[in-house]
Structures
1.
Amino acid sequence: MRNINQLHLNDAKSQFDNYIKSRTPVVFKGLFAESFLEQLTDFNTALDRWFNVQLSVCNEHFYDVRRYEDACTQVYQTVCLGEFFQKIREKSFNPRLLSSARVAPKDIVADLNMEHMAFLVDDVAEIRPYFFAGAKDNFAHLHYDGDYKHVLHYQICGRKTFVLIDPTQARKLLPSRNWSCVSLENFTPSDLHSFLDMVDGWKITLEPGDTIYMPPAFWHYVAYEEDSLSIAFRYGRSKLAGILSTKFHEDVALQRLVYELGGPADTHSEILRHLKDLIEIYNRQYQDFLHKFHSIEAKYREIRAYFDIDINSGYFFAPDVIAENTNLRMLRSGHYYSDFDKRNVIDVLSIPMLDNR
Ligand SMILES: O=C(O)CCC(=O)C(=O)O
Ligand SMILES: [Fe+2]
């Protein structure tokens, strides 16, 4: 297991670049020390201030790798923040309800001054804030985010443990799309420790006021040690990563390509060859979206073989899980490939292939 370094703000200014370049997680202390947000590190104070803020909450955070039916019946409900925690405490709400990765409500954004991050990111205007609220013992199942953005996750109040694993470890994680079938939420502390040794992962518990940097495409699992409020600031991806994220369905093949693009330039020629192939396959004409999906899947298999990621021979996959996941992947691909007419082509010449921030 690897520990995550903690930086004080003075050091952050000079050192953050090295963490970004080497795709290494790090934690900042006191990012909003001089702003109003830092006055809300006490849970009850924050709850008082934002009691009436409307939240969209939803059960579960890992429906893809559970039952197929669950994936089709995700139901959101609207509730105000104060009532949300009250109802969980009095057990009239399911404790697994989370407000997860929803665009931060405007009353909360009004209490933020993003300029406090100006020294960390090139362009504050491109940062998108997402809000998270959840009660003690909740969790976010192990996954990676297919937007391939950098993330600064600020812990407003409560404590949360972050586990991070880099994309090279995918073959040990039984991945399905961007979800792992490994349920870290069921591990004992000592199981987790051994597992993190196996996958060379990082672990840290954030205190209120801490901010963790998650590099793009990283696997993460989050455990709510206490009732918690936090904001994920997502920002900064290359034009190429944006195209891969929005045009292609998620797969560890793509995740790995994005990760490798952030690495040393002398490894790039094979990566670029795979990417150009993918775009060429994307731009072909197909009779329907499933044909397009299957052609892209075939290339993904080739890329996975290149990186030695054999995702379908995981030792612990039950056959029905594989079947359901394959089914789900195929259905979801409609979202990406239904519009398969000539207009939907990627202009390879317009993409700076090696602009990888
Ligand atoms: O804190 C959480 O519940 C999940 C965090 C997460 O997945 C993210 O910031 O992308
Ligand atoms: Fe995430």
2.
Amino acid sequence: MSKYIAVAGKGGVGKTTFTALLLRQMVRREKGTSILAVDADPNANLGEALGLEVTSTISELLEQSKDPKAIPQGMPKNVFIEYKLQQSLVESKDIDLLVMGGPQGAGCYCYPNDILRKHLENIGENYDFVAVDSEAGLEHISRRTIPRIEVMFVISDSSARGIRSAGRVHELIKGLKSAVQTIYLIVTKTSEGSMKSLEEEIQRTGLTVIGDIPLDPLVVEYDLAGKPLFDLPDDAVSVQAVEAILNRAGIFN
Ligand SMILES: Nc1ncnc2c1ncn2[C@@H]1O[C@H](COP(=O)(O)OP(=O)(O)OP(=O)(O)O)[C@@H](O)[C@H]1O
Ligand SMILES: [Mg+2]
């Protein structure tokens, strides 16, 4: 059975950075593991962090299915949508990527969303490991487009406000009644003394801290230059921190 990992948290805290490094470690540590990355953020940029080129998002493809003229004559709509969904998969040597895309236009999407849910469920089972870079509102998780989650990492930056926000994300997840098995907190962009200062705020969230990712000048440098974070060296502090977190969380077992 495939293992589903999701990454959540408010905007700009480091979700995509962590997801990219999680995938980096997975590819390097577990050779031969089949991996699906899902970018569920409307402002999708996981592809860039992984160095993969994304040509179309699922939202764009579903939008096309609303136009009857776009569907070849004689082809049932569900077959057309499934075909489009298959087309949206970005395949690479180590990782395949699905990009959900932005909010969909007006009109009812219940039907395509239903198909999308079934598609994700089916496609997900073809992989050993599925990692989801979530959007802040967790919409895909609440709508159950993502069928289940074994481990959810809630990300916060190293500010009291960030931790409180992670606490609210935690409440949101608890209220979802969706199958989230384990939830961990990760604090990012930390410097010396950050964790000590944030201790009380963290305790109030009820979340278990699985580790922190220090502010890494190499992450800043790679982002500035538009270089994929996937290519960060093994000795980068962020890479080492993520490796330690994944070991602690038992992700490689
Ligand atoms: N450990 C780190 N060290 C230095 N900079 C970092 C670190 N983690 C993230 N950043 C920087 O913080 C910014 C936001 O990171 P990222 O894009 O991963 O956040 P996000 O939560 O995915 O944001 P969004 O909600 O916009 O998708 C980026 O400029 C990134 O380079
Ligand atoms: Mg992001």
